[in-house]
Amino acid sequence: MALTKDDVRSGQLGQPAFSAAAKPEEQELERKRSEQTALESELAERELRAANLRAELSAFERRYLHEVGMRYAELDELKAQIAERSAKKQPSAEKAQQAARDARARADETKSVAQEHEEEDLQSAKPFKASQEMKRLYREVAKRIHPDLTSDRDDRARRQLLMAEANKAYELGDESRLAKILNEYESSPETVQGEGPGAELIRVIRRISQVRGRISEIEAEAQELLRSDLYQLKSRLEEAEQLGRDVLKEMVDKVEHQIAQAKRRLEHPDEAPAVVEG
């Protein structure tokens, strides 16, 4: 029997016409993929904001230690010497001996922190500011490599290492390293996806769940950073700068004044002791 045009339109050539439509699982997969894409973009933005916050606080901490911490280390060393000299004059006075031990412990601690900072690149004492290209690269890294975007244990472990490298590269402003991390991962066999819509739908649903979980974690981490003493100090200094005050310089001047007093006490022990503040 010859086929009519209506037969062709109704799908008599092998299959019913309705089979050309996407299956329910395929339609749901497309919807979930769209949801996943939107969430991954949101995650990348939140990761970027969190990375910026961590980098800014880290840069501020290094600057603070470089400008103020080193001077506090010098001051604590002078105070320890003063306390030890006083204890030497009063060998039977337990209070003086304990004060000397406490002062030495504090001096050793601040000296250790200061020495650790001095080993870092002095360039890192500058305020952190990422370029637009750095931000773009970081977003792409977060979208493609973030460990919370996979269910595979081995792939997750690999992603965790790469993401840690990416965070460090971003903090240091190493744009070429970020690009290399992204390119290396994109060309790896782990990025190849397989099999039918049913299995893929399950993977996508799980990825969506993982992304939502990571977004919640980032929000909690960000709130903790914003409540930290370091962030509060940074905010107060920035507010003061807007009013024309250089609070960091004021802190440096105050510590240097205390250092001068302590040196005078060491150089002229017979003089009436001046009060060393702090």
How would you characterize this protein structure?
The protein is mainly alpha-helical. The protein has one domain. The chain has helices spanning 5-9, 24-89, 94-118, 132-145, 153-172, 175-186, 197-227, 229-242, 247-267. The relative contact order is 0.12.
Key structural traits:
278 residues; 75% helix; elongated; mainly alpha
Would you spell out the secondary-structure blueprint of this structure?
Blueprint: H1 5-9, H2 24-89, H3 94-118, H4 132-145, H5 153-172, H6 175-186, H7 197-227, H8 229-242, H9 247-267
Helix pairs in contact: 2-3, 2-4, 2-5, 2-7, 2-9, 4-5, 4-6, 5-6
How many beta strands in the DSSP annotation?
A: 0
Head-to-tail CA distance between termini: 104 Å
- Cα gyration radius (Å): 31 Å
Q: What low-confidence regions span 5 or more consecutive residues with pLDDT below 50?
A: 7-19
> How many structural domains in the coordinates?
1
Percent range of helical residues? over 70%
Average pLDDT metric:
81
Q: If helices are DSSP runs of H or I spanning 4 or more residues, what is the number of helices?
A: 9
Beta-sheet strand percentage?
under 5%
Main beta-sheet annotation: none
Give, in order, the helices and strands. HHHHHHHHH
Structural class by sheet pairing and helices: mainly alpha
Which shape, going by the Cα principal axes?
A: elongated
